[in-house]
Amino acid sequence: MRTSLGHSLTSLSLLAALLWLGSCGGGDARFEFAEGTPADVGMNAATLEGARTYAFAEGRNTQAVVVVRRGTVVAEWYADGRDASSRGASWSVGKSFASALVGIAIDRGDIPSLDEPMTTYIPEWEGTDKEGMRLLDVMEMASGLEWNEDYDPGAASSSDVIDLVLDASGSLLSVVLDNEVTAPPGTRFNYSSGDAMLLGRVIRVATGMSAGEYAREHLFDPLGIEDAAWWRDRTGDTLTFCCVDMPSRDFARFGQLFLEGGRLGGRRILSEEWVTASTSPSRSYEGYGYMWWLMGNTDVGVPADLYAALGHDGQYIYVIPSLELVVVRNGWYVPYLGDTVADPSLFGRYPSDGIIPSRGTRPPDEWDDAAFLAPIVNSITD
What we know:
This protein has helices spanning 2-9, 14-22, 45-55, 93-108, 135-139, 160-166, 174-177, 193-207, 211-223, 248-259, 272-278, 346-349, 369-378, and strands spanning 34-35, 62-69, 72-78, 87-88, 229-230, 232-233, 244-247, 263-264, 267-268, 307-311, 315-320, 325-331, 333-334, 341-342, 360-361. By secondary structure, it is α+β, with helices and mostly antiparallel strands. It has a six-stranded mixed β-sheet, with helices on both faces. The chain has a three-stranded antiparallel β-sheet with strand order 4-7-5. It has a two-stranded parallel ribbon with strand order 6-14. Strand 8 and strand 9 form a beta hairpin. The radius of gyration is 20 Å and the shape is globular.
């Protein structure tokens, strides 16, 4: 069903796109979550506190946790020195934002189809072994391009993702474009920040706007997200593989958008068909959709319908439709105070793993998704 659904939703005619745009009303009022107690939405407060105890234990390096049920914020916890206005990091959570932009562009008719060849957006691939690659292949992390996503500093000589974050050429996309094809497109899942970085080029060619600009107009503003920065390189390309900074409650807005099938605050932002397709198993791996992790299909001890946006050093947006839950956890983050540009490299300004204590993100010493989520799930009484 996934393949036919993905094909049908991406084959929108101009008329269908115009009809979809006509459904996107709802006014310009900023969306706000309701505020309430756990009991207001059928949750036991004492049991719920177990998640707080787990997340903020010594060494877990949690900056923020936000728990939303039925559109109501029932728990919002912050580490000392941080509050609701503090920006969280995203790392690869940004991939799920980039995926949503592709969905919006298809809904609007800016991109005709996931069947569109990548040469439409990267014409320099014409006449090469990459010309058979489609946008769908990239969305599923099955482009066939060689890519090594090894974060171990000891693997720096062979890691493509380390090359990406250390690149000082000014164009991070250049790290990806010349990689070899090592598998037929669409046949092999290979988690790749390189694949995700290609989406910035797709959005720019399709819309005439950078992904960051397109997100501001068609995603952040409609969601009511006012304080967001999406990192870019010196050429102006948005880093669509990572690095969206915003307060934790705003990450929850994004999760709530998917929980509600693409509508938020009465406003249609994404089509329901796109939400369904992007959170359904891809052709080559049941644990991944269109840049969302389908954890319920692969992880023990979590709800079967759980899907999530996941980022390095413990950035999580968990969505559990059957329980009407959105849960956000952000790790400790000290933002760079200047412009959010990878200059001369991303890693110098957005370091991970606590390498620079005064800047960047710090990982938990250990993290168990099931152990963290269990008190939240078990707190539900209805």
